[in-house]
Amino acid sequence: MIVDDEAVQRSDLAEMVSSLGFEVATAADGREALAVLESFSPSAILTDLVMPCKDGVELLKELAARGDRTPTIVLTGFGSIERAISIVHDLKAFWFLEKPVQSDVLSALLERAIQQNNLVAETELLNRQLSYQGVLGELVGESPAMQEIFSLIRQVAPTSASVFITGESGTGKELVARAIHRLSPRSAGGFVAVNCAALPESLIESELFGHEKGAFTGALERRAGCFERAQNGTLLLDEIGEMAVGTQAKLLRVIEESKVWRLGGSRDIPIAVRVLAATNHSPEKAIRDKLLREDLYYRLNVFHLSLPALRDRKQDIVPIGTALIRDLNKKHGCRVTHLSQDVLRQFEAHSWPGNVRELRNVIERAVILAAEGEIQIRHLPSSLGPQPVVAPISQPDGLLQVQVGVPMREVEEAYIHLALKHTNNNRRRAAEILGISLHTLYNKLRLYREEKGAEAPEDDQELVAGD
């Protein structure tokens, strides 16, 4: 990403970096750069120092506060090298470049910065995996179900087979796809994920296959599609069942012929891309409902991975929570240590309809609120806070509420006492309400007293049979 308030310099730098083979995003100042970072993850940041609104120094401070390790190269004018060196030292910028920037110098510096950043990331990941078993890339799980998923990922990743990933929303389908890519021979290539459900039908073909300038209204320049951007890498088609059936036919042709045609193009472009697909719906049902082409499904479903819901692997909550707390502490500058036992009990009782994504959101909120120490019940959202204690049997407003699991013997006794309460202890009237004889009512009350070792009240009378 290039951050510079001078439009001409920003444009020249963007063109220079693009010519080196990088995808480029630009911003006019630090504030705009932070907004761009919400949707763009650069391998390096090239920023000027003097800018309006939020200058380069403020941008570096904000990135440090967020725990963002993206290597940053500071641009400096003549006469301010000492300040640039000071900033590199104090604010941990990667290095500095004096204007005007030379293409060969910039290329070498960017390559070094990205290599160092990748090395740091790989070292962190390795240390995390060595210090904690049950981790594969960004996936965490000690349960037998997740260990089976890890085993399958390790087996299929080195191959070129297409993988179809299913599972509820939030179970980590994209993380599985990224793990397959990272462990594959294509890891040096790009990983591109496309959410087919998020793109309107009119744009999905352009996003997948690209377009030439003037191919349609608004096509002001040539644009490479996802297949080209994932060249020699991996393409994930998320929510494949949401793609228009007509586009699915074109997609099948591209996959089978390993060639793509940009919209408005006159020639085919060879592609070498591994295609993964994912959906949170039943693919068989989608085929029956004519939402997913059967031939495309079988072309993509060479190897199937079905991810379990979090509610079916609750033993993974603790390791996932531990990993999330570690990562979120870095992101937010907090010092949270662990989840309290009360919180763990609440997590165990919750059904987690949003799966791991919901768990992450809950823990991120709690980390911010707690700031340090343990996460407690008060740090959870109301949907996960302390639940009211409900007695196994209660009698609110003349009703009898019974939890599942209470023995029938206890339910009967509670119901008889409720009838007596309702009739102000008029046993004859209570027997009528209960639909039993007065003799049976007396016998049951006597039995309850004997079981508890209580004495009969003075006004209690034994009834003779048939009375």
Q: How would you summarize what this structure contains?
A:
The protein contains 18 helices and 20 strands. With 467 residues, it is α/β, with parallel strands linked by helices. It folds into 4 domains: 2-125, Rossmann fold; 143-308, P-loop containing nucleotide triphosphate hydrolases (Rossmann fold); 313-384, Helicase, Ruva Protein, domain 3 (Orthogonal Bundle), CATH 1.10.8.60; 393-452, Arc Repressor Mutant, subunit A, CATH 1.10.10.
Per CATH, the architecture of the largest domain is 3-Layer(aba) Sandwich
Task: Please compute the radius of gyration using only Cα atoms.
Answer: 32 Å
Q: What overall geometry do the principal axes of the alpha carbons give?
A: elongated
Helix-and-strand structural type: alpha/beta
Number of helical stretches of at least 4 residues: 18
Q: What does the largest sheet look like?
A: 5 strands, parallel
| Helical proportion, percent range | 40-55%
Task: Enumerate the strands of the largest sheet in spatial order, edge to edge or round the barrel.
Answer: 2-1-3-4-5
Number of domains: 4
Tell me the strand percentage band. Answer: 5-15%
Count of extended strands: 20
Say which CATH homologous superfamily of the largest domain is assigned: P-loop containing nucleotide triphosphate hydrolases
Low-confidence stretches: 461-467
Distance between the termini: 95 Å
Q: Round the mean pLDDT to the nearest integer and report it.
A: 85
CATH topology tier name of the largest domain: Rossmann fold
Question: How would you portray this structure in words?
Answer:
With 467 residues, the protein is an alpha/beta fold. The protein folds into 4 domains: 2-125, 3-Layer(aba) Sandwich (Rossmann fold); 143-308, P-loop containing nucleotide triphosphate hydrolases (Rossmann fold); 313-384, Helicase, Ruva Protein, domain 3, CATH 1.10.8.60; 393-452, Arc Repressor Mutant, subunit A (Orthogonal Bundle). The chain has helices spanning 7-19, 30-36, 56-66, 81-90, 103-131, 144-156, 173-182, 201-209, 226-229, 245-257, 283-288, 294-300, 317-332, 341-349, 355-370, 408-422, 427-434, 438-452; strands spanning 2-3, 26-27, 45-48, 72-76, 95-98, 135-136, 139-140, 163-166, 191-195, 210-211, 223-224, 234-238, 259-260, 269-270, 274-279, 303-306, 335-339, 372-375, 393-394, 401-402. The strands form 7 sheets. Strands 2-1-3-4-5 form a 5-stranded parallel β-sheet, with helices on both faces. The radius of gyration is 32 Å and the shape is elongated. The termini are far apart.
